[in-house]
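Exam review. A common question shows you a sequence with its structure tokens and asks you to describe the fold in words. Practice with the pair below. Do the first one on your own.
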Amino acid sequence: SQSRYSQHKRLRAFLKRDANSYDFSVSSGGNTVFVDVYNPESSDNTPMLVVDMPAVGSEFVFNLKKTDTAQEMFEIYGISIETMEDAGVLLHSVGINGAGHYSLLRQNLMKEQLELLNPDAVVIDLGANDFYRGKINKDVFASNLLKIVNTVRSATPGATIILGCSQDIYRGGYSLPD
């Protein structure tokens, strides 16, 4: 019988790829695939690698491999575990709990990674941290939001951009004013 994981055999690793980057292997479901992170003769050293696994289990194990004396670091930004078919919903999340919308403006790889993902839709979900403490500068907020939307639009011109916002906030026994 097939496990619920068996269809998720494609990995997209977002990482730094240069001569100093370690290679790695990934194991799952009794299979191991070696990944050559950087190839100086390749014309494709984009910061994303696609790894197709023959079969997978419920977990993945990654092992760094030093295969060259120049290798001294490994910088990874995220991994996407996907099906082989280009169908369904694939969710990527940016940010951490407690960060405001302005933190997206500091994501210096966001545009490049969005281009590589080429999404059909991008959801910008604004959380309570942008106005939880009161005192939000609406002009600065609007300007920053426009910069974020423009970054997404320039990276993925065909994608639908959906803006979401936080629900009403209740603090200290009172609802926060808008």
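Now try the second one, then compare your answer with the model answer below.
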Amino acid sequence: MKTHKQFNISTIPFNVDLLSGLLWQLDIEGINEYDNYLVIFAKGESELTEKDITDFLKIIQKENLIESFTLEESSIEEINWNEEWEKKTNVIEVSDRIVIKPTFRDYTPKENQLVITIDPKMSFGTGEHETTKLVLQLLENHNDNVKSVLDVGSGTGVLGIAASLMGAEKVVGIDIDEWCIENGMENIALNSVQSKVEVRLAEISDVKDSPFDLVVANINKHILLDIVEDIVNLTKSNGKVILSGLLISDKVDIVNLYTKHGLVLVDENQLEEWIALVFSKV
């Protein structure tokens, strides 16, 4: 029987949404959330160690997002991840218009609602996290005349699928995780948007397409700082950029850098301690 690494993490203060969003940056397979701690899982052969997680948590601590933490490692027998996802994945009403549902939940849509079917498995982007909700809500308000979209760090494909259902004719999603590409393709098929949406195993530097009307990136601050030139170059003049995966404390650094590269902040939204920013390329 295969085994998996299990890490129990508790922090003071304990903010489960904050921790879950940040910990997905590590090489993990899944997260289980509880009232006062969470558990992350990695493959038995994974190189992820207790020290790696400790170092990661110390960075979060240094940024004053947590005061202290405890970490315990153990091993468990193989988990049926699909069953684990199904236990905790429900229908999510992101806004009055946008609803995300898995195939195994029934939902009767209201008039004019846009229902997106997503079976997330292990990919980030279920719609439950604040950053996904923020980007989807901003997509509602910034999709006029948007015919082409680039989704950087596409995960489940939910953002690109939503953009296509809102009218985009060409959507390219990129991710560096093979599992995300597989899951994205499955979700694209579930929503019957194969003719409009594709996902590629690629980094943003690999994208050689013509500039896009809209670029969305729901990833962490450090990557967004590193790829600013790629994002700007892949955005059309008068096009827009939606960024998330960001905490309130990240705003100043992101805005300063992106405005230096010719973008103008035109809109923003906030849920809890998370934010999403909309820029226009002048």
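Model answer, second protein: The radius of gyration is 19 Å. Residues 50-62 form the longest helix (13 residues). Full marks require stating both points clearly.
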